[in-house]
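Why predict the complex rather than its parts? Because the way molecules touch one another can change local conformation, and only a joint prediction can capture that. The input here totals 273 residues.
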Amino acid sequence: MFEAKMLQSSVLKKIIESLKDLFSDANFDCSSSGITLQDMDSSHVALCYLKLRSDEEGFEDYRCDRNITLGVNLVLMSKILKCAGNDDVITLRAEDEPNILTFIFDSKNGERVSKYDIKLMEIDSELLGIPDTEYSCVVKMPSHEFQRICSNLSQLGDSVTVDCHKEGVDFKVAGEQGSGAIKLKQNTTVDKEEDQVSVELNEAVTQSFALKFLCAFTKATSLSDTVSLSLTQDTPIVVEYPIAQHGYLRFYLAPKIEE
Amino acid sequence: KGTQSKITAFFPSE
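Output of the joint prediction:
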């Protein structure tokens, strides 16, 4: 038996909303330590990795007697989650050899209980081994700032060049009709930690990425006040949104390589 | 600018 009771249905809603356009079908791997999801987009350029730890406070109850994989169409799941109120407590439930995933939404006042079942799918997805490496540069910034940068620069071109150096980070776009550049200076003196821009630099990195994917990743902005970008030359960028009281959602994007 | 690489080129299949 698998049963996970999440105190905030809005968290799961936001996760699925941020994933469903790039990653339509995905396997939720459930174990006693929590729920993970790894999926590639159809062009095999981007990868998402979600981790929700069972021992974090976001779960009121968590039980997973044996490891199970729940193959779910995320577009359908998003439709089901739209039936839940933002403050509802949400319970996910499945048997040990499941064909069905059950969603139970309990309203805060206890007056309404909704139950939805969806059929599970057999999804043959390739799991990749993501190496645990140290990155040359880690930039932490307000998540809405990153969203704005991606959105602004995507008006002018398809790819952004991210240039991390010791003063800060530059985002540049050069399109056929014009070009743009946004410089972010390191700023760790502002009061609120979530408003800070910090750059941990071991080595300078200059790398180009497709804006289409970065813009898609920023659909996760409402999950977290901050986002971190981890870069190493000629390797995928990691865009990580911490999820309070649960874990994190990471996106990996393969770089554009100069010919 | 540049050629789009695949994520599978960086992370091994498990």
